[in-house]
C-alpha cells in the first residue's frame, strides 16, 4: 500500500500502530480493529523474530508496513539482511545509525536490490539515532557522547549524509533535527504518549500534538493502542488530538 506524506495529512494518517503482540493472528486482530483509523502498522522485532514473513503477510493489505528491525552489524551482513527485508513489501525499514556511514550505505543498497528482485519500489531507510529508553546518564554509561540531543544530531547528520531517507528520534529532538536537516528527511517518532498516559520504560516522551507541531511525520504508538479497551476509539482520540493541535 502507498505511503503518503505532507502537511495536509490527517491526524490518523500520522499514527503508526505498533503491533507488539506475540503472533500473526493477534497482530491481524489488532490491525483490523485499527483499520481506517491509523496510517501505518509497525511489525517489530518481537513479532518478526518469532514468525518472520508471516508477520508481515498477516497485515500487509490493511495498511503500509513499517518493518522495525533496527539492523546493526558489519556492512556486508546488513546489506544481505536488508536485501531480504526489501523483498517483503514494507514501506519503511530501520537500521541503527551508530553502525556508521558504510553500514547505512550498505543497507540502502540491499533494500533496493531486494525490492527490485520482486518488482517492488525500495522501502524508505530510517536510521535510529538514540533509543527513547535511554537518557543522558545511560549514554554516558555506554560511552556514547551526550547529551542525548547532541548525540541524536550527530548521528542524524551522519545517517542522512550516508543515504538514509529519514530518522527515528524521540519527541525531544524533533525540532532540532528539522532545524538542522530541513524538511527532506522523514522523522518517525516513538515514545509518544497521549496526555495523562503512563510513560512506561520510555524516558524521552512527548504528546502527539506537540510532536507533530515540532515537525514529526509519523508517530509510533504502541501500548496506548494495544492495551486500550477499544483500540479503534483510542486511535480516534489521538488523531483528534493531533488535528486539534
List the main descriptive attributes of the protein structure presented here:
TIM Barrel; globular; 8-stranded parallel beta barrel; alpha/beta; 245 residues; 43% helix
Descriptive report:
Helices cover 43% and strands 15% of the residues. By secondary structure, it is α/β, with parallel strands linked by helices. The protein has a single domain (12-244), classed as TIM Barrel (Alpha-Beta Barrel), CATH 3.20.20. Strands 1-2-3-4-5-6-7-8 form an eight-stranded parallel barrel, surrounded by six helices. It starts with 14 loop residues before the first strand and ends with a helix. The mean pLDDT is 92.
Strand content: 5-15%
Q: Give the termini separation.
A: 28 Å
Mean pLDDT, to the nearest integer, reads: 92
**Main β sheet profile:** 8 strands, parallel, barrel
| Helix segment tally | 11
Amino acid at each position: 500500500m502507498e505511503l503518503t506524506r505532507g502537511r495536509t495529512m490527517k491526524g490518523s494518517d500520522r499514527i503508526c500502530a505498533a503491533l507488539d503482540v506475540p503472533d500473526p493472528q493477534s497482530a491481524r486482530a489488532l490491525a483490523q480493529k485499527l483499520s481506517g483509523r491509523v496510517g501505518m502498522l509497525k511489525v517489530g522485532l518481537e513479532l518478526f523474530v518469532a514468525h518472520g514473513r508471516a508477520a508481515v503477510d498477516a497485515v500487509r493489505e490493511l495498511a503500509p508496513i513499517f518493518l522495525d528491525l533496527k539492523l546493526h552489524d558489519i556492512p556486508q551482513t546488513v546489506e544481505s539482511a536488508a536485501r531480504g527485508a526489501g523483498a517483503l513489501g514494507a514501506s519503511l525499514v530501520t537500521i541503527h545509525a551508530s553502525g556508521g556511514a558504510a553500514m547505512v550505505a550498505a543497507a540502502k543498497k540491499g533494500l533496493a536490490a531486494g525490492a527490485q528482485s520482486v518488482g517492488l519500489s525500495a522501502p524508505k531507510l530510517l536510521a535510529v539515532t538514540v533509543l527513547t529508553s535511554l537518557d543522558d546518564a545511560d549514554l554516558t554509561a555506554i560511552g556514547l557522547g551526550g547529551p542525548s540531543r547532541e548525540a541524536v544530531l550527530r548521528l542524524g547528520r551522519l545517517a542522512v549524509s550516508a543515504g538514509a531517507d529519514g530518522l527515528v528520534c524521540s519527541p525531544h529532538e524533533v525540532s532540532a533535527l528539522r532545524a538542522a536537516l530541513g524538511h527532506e528527511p522523514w522523522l518517525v517518532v516513538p515514545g509518544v504518549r497521549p496526555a495523562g498516559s503512563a510513560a512506561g520504560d520510555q524516558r524521552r516522551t512527548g504528546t502527539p500534538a506537540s510532536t507533530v507541531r515540532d515537525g514529526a511525520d509519523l508517530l509510533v504508538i504502541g501500548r496506548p493502542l494495544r492495551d486500550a479497551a477499544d483500540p479503534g476509539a483510542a486511535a480516534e482520540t489521538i488523531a483528534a488530538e493531533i488535528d486539534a493541535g
